[in-house]
Amino acid sequence: MAKMITGMNEDYSKWYIDIVTNAELADYSPVKGCMVIRPNGYALWENIQRILDGMFKETGHRNAYFPLLIPESFMRREAEHVEGFAPECAVVTHGGGKKLEENLYIRPTSETIIWSMYSKWINSYRDLPLLINQWANVLRWEMRTRLFLRTTEFLWQEGHTAHAEAGEAEEEAVRMIDIYREFCEKYLALPVLKGKKTDKEKFAGAVHTYTIEAMMQDRKALQAGTSHNLGQNFARAFNVTFLDRNGERKLVWATSWGVSTRLIGALIMAHSDDNGLVVPPKIAHIDCVIIPIWKKEEDRVKVLEFSSNLYSELKNRKVNAVYDDADQYKPGWKFAQYEMLGVPLRIEIGPREVEQEKVVIVRRDNREKTACSLDRVHEAILEISERMQRELYEKAKNMMESNTSETDNLQGLENNMEKGGFFKINWCGKKSCEDYFQDRMKATIRLIDSECTTRRCIVCGDPSSHTVIVSRSY
Amino acid sequence: MAKMITGMNEDYSKWYIDIVTNAELADYSPVKGCMVIRPNGYALWENIQRILDGMFKETGHRNAYFPLLIPESFMRREAEHVEGFAPECAVVTHGGGKKLEENLYIRPTSETIIWSMYSKWINSYRDLPLLINQWANVLRWEMRTRLFLRTTEFLWQEGHTAHAEAGEAEEEAVRMIDIYREFCEKYLALPVLKGKKTDKEKFAGAVHTYTIEAMMQDRKALQAGTSHNLGQNFARAFNVTFLDRNGERKLVWATSWGVSTRLIGALIMAHSDDNGLVVPPKIAHIDCVIIPIWKKEEDRVKVLEFSSNLYSELKNRKVNAVYDDADQYKPGWKFAQYEMLGVPLRIEIGPREVEQEKVVIVRRDNREKTACSLDRVHEAILEISERMQRELYEKAKNMMESNTSETDNLQGLENNMEKGGFFKINWCGKKSCEDYFQDRMKATIRLIDSECTTRRCIVCGDPSSHTVIVSRSY
Fold first, then answer.
1. Closest chain A residue to B96 measured between Cα atoms?
2. Quick one: pLDDT band at residue A410, thresholds 50, 70, 90?
3. Cβ count near A453 (within 10 Å)
4. Which of A166, A315, A472, B393 makes an SS bond possible with B189, Cβ 3.0 to 4.6 Å?
5. Chain A neighbors of B46, CB-CB under 8 A
6. What is the ipTM, given to two decimal places?
């Protein structure tokens, strides 16, 4: 039998880690808080990268690479930024056998080093907009870590753009959060809510931050991507100006935006079950596994031949198929193994299938079986994959919607927070009321859903300025 | 006019840096020794990555990601390894606002952290071979740096494989150096010599190291890639054993191999000229630039229309074309600009071309012009690109061969070293004789070309054990 997974309802946290380790997606490393992304996990990241990178390039962005190390003095140039990030930094004090004259921080994010370069590269309106993205590793010292979701080192992309006009920067920030939303919904089958962060929760150094928030199966929120309108904060800190068309010198407007390997954690938590990983077909690195089944020795050769022919044909048609003809394991063991690994479709071929020139296709998520004649297998794989992709999204969307409720009763909110879900409430905008959620319910405002002035704050009863989503979160 | 480039014969070093900065391939960063790879340079790296990654996967390797930080104690487990690398490491002593219990090194290479994981993952012969590659940044503190060629931080890939048999590891080490050679010759149009390093020059921790060495236009050698047979050194240091088919516990055999962003430096130095960058078509991220040319206003519309139609058609046929119809620059300025940037082909379209329904295609490297009718443009681009790719390789190969000489005269070798080139000589194998080249000629043994026992060492006159290539190098 394949390795055991703790039941999701028994211990959600343990269930998650069991899937990550048994599906060989990631492993703990000897350095506290850092993870090793194993080939099965990295293959998911490669697909995420490939698709997002295409979306970035289609919208005019180009990739570049900036240094890992940032001088301490750079971090200090933007007041909010250093306050937010310096405490979580890893610090290099020695290099080449000597103590350094100035400490270097391993980047927790790259605004400061990038804007120091932009001050060199931007001089005229002709240099704008500057639309650059970087795929990189970053480090943020974390006390409590969890594979993929919160680790000291993680992989991500960070876009950093410079614009001539405030309005253009705002458009860019919205464009990128929309790209993240589209990517999550279309490829990860992950429905999200989009909105602004409160001032307390926004990026350190931003004017405002857009976020997309997804709901995991334990009904907690997970921040899946953020996009920041940085205003002129970093342009001011690094003196980045340009001559406009009228020869006037002006400060540049900025955005930054990022998603990380955390998306793999979101993907796992959103769709998987007690049998292991479930991956939406569009993001899976293997499309299907072919498993030959025979009991009598006389069936062996014909089942293997039939299976192997199908495998070759699918390969020719660009299907990423795996063919498992290993002798030492029984079909049942293999079924469990590939379910654990999250291969979207299983193709079963036994003596009866060979005789009738057909196969049985089994969906990973709901085990729905489809019998299909040999000449239609390729078509059927595409159809079933598409349906599976759509239904995974719909299932997750139903889950999110049926666990989102509106309330104006503070006691009811407190009582219900334990069981999870998104709560739509009214909030006056005061930090003291925002802190109340954290202090009393271990919950935070995930995003501002809309302006609202006709109702009252659920905490203090003052006139409400916003409708917000409150939830516990990862 | 485009920015000026120092002549190659005037000051080779300055010529190189002028190309890197004026073609906006890379820039100096505020952190000493670290570079910023700008979008034009990173696009070359993306193409290198894409092609090599495909070659690695075709030979059964999978990608993974291991932590950036390595505990100091891990580095110390392999004696030669720590001696070779520890002095060049950047050291993290503080994290999350506190002094760390154990110093962490930023990886200069990842053997130690990876083999600590392999000890967890490898247990049986069924787990072997384990064929993993990582794309990552690494840091080696350098005193004298040069953009792309030698920087404190650089990007690279590092393959790390584990095998049941010594012979398999040796085969793998050879397979990978051959992949590097194929890649350099086929895509970078860079001829290389392949051979073993001497013990002095091999990787710290390897049994032996294979290298490929290319000749730059100043006739110095550049090490373009290395592949190491690590024997059981790291398996022993990290106690990585497996049960073989007979139930016997044995130490694992290992290889590692890597190429880096240094290849971009090699590419630039091998083909470029006093007009700027020259990039072989197979590695260029832009295939051609279309430049419309008119003097009289009445020609303007028809030239632009013709050019724009061609641009659309080429785009449809998946040609990465750029169409530069900007008004503010003259065609001559644009010619110089795109020559600087290294775009392989220029398509000139003037009133005469429009009338005759043809175009003129100009090669970047030798400015050879080909007139071509409109209906044959796509075909011609493919043909000329292929010819240019082949001829760049042949030119570089001729250069290397005509600057490689055999000698058994030590004084002659010393006299000729200044003007550069590869010198094939006989060497007894003693380190003192090897040091002589360094001390007296600032040259090193780049590789062992072959065994040789019938001749005598050029330095000491003892019987020779090897024919080697001696050269100055980057």
1. A88
2. very high
3. 9
4. B393
5. 63
6. 0.96
